[in-house]
Amino acid sequence: MQNHHLPQEILDYIADLLHDQPETLKRCCLVSRSWVPRTRKHLFADIRLRSVDDLRSWKKTFPDVGNSPAYHTRSLFIGCSSVVVAEDAEEGGWIRAFSRISSLDVDNGVWYLNTPAISLLTPFHNFSPTLKSLRMCPIAFPCPQLFDLVLSSPLLEDLTLTGHDDSFGNEDESHGLQTVLPSTSPPLTGSLDLNIFGGMGNTVRQLLDLPNGLHFRSLAFSWHCEADLPWTTQLVELCSDTLECLDIMCRLPSAFVSIPHRS
Q1: Cβ–Cβ contacts within 10 Å for residue 254, how many?
Q2: Sorting pLDDT into bands at 50, 70 and 90, what band is 19?
Q3: Where are the chain's structural domains?
Q4: Distance (Å, rounded) from C-alpha 161 to C-alpha 141?
């Protein structure tokens, strides 16, 4: 009796319908090798390396970086950045296997980092041209290397930054931190969320200098000093044509405010 096989596009369609059922997708991988490529697309779309154990497990399962399913990953969370960076340096660019992510979330886990910011950020520079959402928490400001990362992401829309700026108010220091700006910058048409202890002035100053301007639809700020107020005003004015939502949490003594905004 002759075997009859379903066309590959039908098998792919079935796998797509099961995109939110990981256990079923895993069983599909056992049915036939022809099911594997499409199921990988969904099984590895969201990768979360929360700890060193998660990282070790991933590398043990997929020792060949070039053939790992990292290519299918669209959302990447890293909760052990110092270890990832160290091993990336040892292995000549391990993190670049995640070359098609659209969302990167790096949580350093501690407020005061012993590792220089440039070391933490270097592996992520220009590693995924499809990056649209970037979250860095926490990080020491001001950090020109961070803006090098922002500027190396041509499709970036959403930006979330949390950290501590000990140099705010030191004009001599902050003037020397401006990164070299290209003629173009990311679209930045999504959301901006800033929560910077010590003041967000140095960070906003660099955002204001971006050549293509700012077009955020959503702004969220945590105020930690009175100097944050005028910077907020400037950002709101620059985004007035696109702004749909404004959310402010005031962490000044005895104050809390959340302000909705509609264009």
Answers
A1: 5
A2: confident
A3: 1-43, 102-250
A4: 10
